[in-house]
Amino acid sequence: GDSSCNLDRHEEMEELAAKFLGVESAMAFGMGFATNSMNIPALTGKGCLILSDELNHASLVLGARLSGSTIRVFKHNNMQSLEKMLRDAIVHGQPRTHRPWKKILILVEGIYSMEGSIVRLPEVIALKKRYRAYLYLDEAHSIGALGPGGRGVVDYFGLDPRDVDVMMGTFTKSFGAAGGYIGGRRELTEYLRSHSHSAVYAASMSPPVVEQIIASMKCIMGEDGTTLGRDRVQQLAENTLYFRRRLTEMGFIIYGNNDSPVVPMMLYMPAKIGAFGREMLKRNIGVVVVGFPATPIIESRARFCISAAHTKDMLDTALSVISEVGDLLQIKYSRHKRLIYDQIQD
């Protein structure tokens, strides 16, 4: 990188990240998207097979395509689908020649940002071991958010981080900084340092960004001498459960796992996307609305991302506005929970 005077702080950040993730070694990159799209091609190539979840983020899809590997897509979080593809890959090998695949790499995310679902990691790891594949886990939305220590989905399930070959994540969401990282065995990071486009051709991170990452990671780990980090992770978990429960009680249809701080709320009709965004904005609440092509055309949705900084009052204010707009636009599609909620109101 160009800021060689700052290398010691960079190294400190990477060592801290490795310690936080529970892996031997970690490496940081200036951009989250490029962490995926430029590193997957360094890990697999021709004669390799990538098995990718159908809802994987564009950066993973691009990385897989750029690698020149064969790509097969399995149904979202569906372990039967994944196992069938693994078995076929082992039995049949490569097309035409039937030589065994050089490598099989499974690509998954920790939390899927459009669905709010959490990867079925224990099962993925069991399959990976059984079929001797490699696992690449993208924790953009789960790092710093899931698990008792905020260490992501491995922490959430209480698994061994060493069972994930490549742990990837970003510093943009929970750490309030920029860039991404890859963690794993020392051989992995040393290989990437010399072979990856994002390492060889990109400028290194700016010093203030590095400082922000070090400070926020120490906070989450409790190394700043306070329980602030742990309290926030706990607060986030409580906020998430509360917000999801209240939306369901009001009669909205929401997707994803109960513990996921990414909460998609279904609007369905494309025409309601703009209306929902505008009506919420009129009432001083900005929401992210998602439609085609990020989701199927009839599966338009609003996406709420819960934060530890949200107080109960803020959540209640947002919920009452969401409820009001929900009635106005008739998007309380759920049938079963409404009655209970209305009785409480009466």
UniProtKB/TrEMBL annotation:
The keyword Transferase applies. One of its GO terms (biological process) is sphingosine biosynthetic process. It is an enzyme of class 2 (transferase). CDD domains: KBL_like. This is serine C-palmitoyltransferase. InterPro entries: Aminotrans_II_pyridoxalP_BS, Aminotransferase_I/II_large, AON_synthase_class-II, PyrdxlP-dep_Trfase, PyrdxlP-dep_Trfase_major, PyrdxlP-dep_Trfase_small. Belongs to the class-II pyridoxal-phosphate-dependent aminotransferase family. GO terms for molecular function: pyridoxal phosphate binding; serine C-palmitoyltransferase activity. Residues 8-322 form the Aminotransferase class I/classII large domain. Pathway: Lipid metabolism; sphingolipid metabolism; Sphingolipid metabolism. Its EC number is 2.3.1.50. Keywords: Acyltransferase, Endoplasmic reticulum, Lipid metabolism, Membrane, Pyridoxal phosphate, Sphingolipid metabolism, Transferase, Transmembrane, Transmembrane helix. Its main location: endoplasmic reticulum. It is a single-pass membrane protein. It is found in: Endoplasmic reticulum membrane. Its cofactor is pyridoxal 5'-phosphate. GO terms for cellular component: endoplasmic reticulum membrane; serine palmitoyltransferase complex. Transmembrane segments: none annotated. Pfam families: Aminotran_1_2.
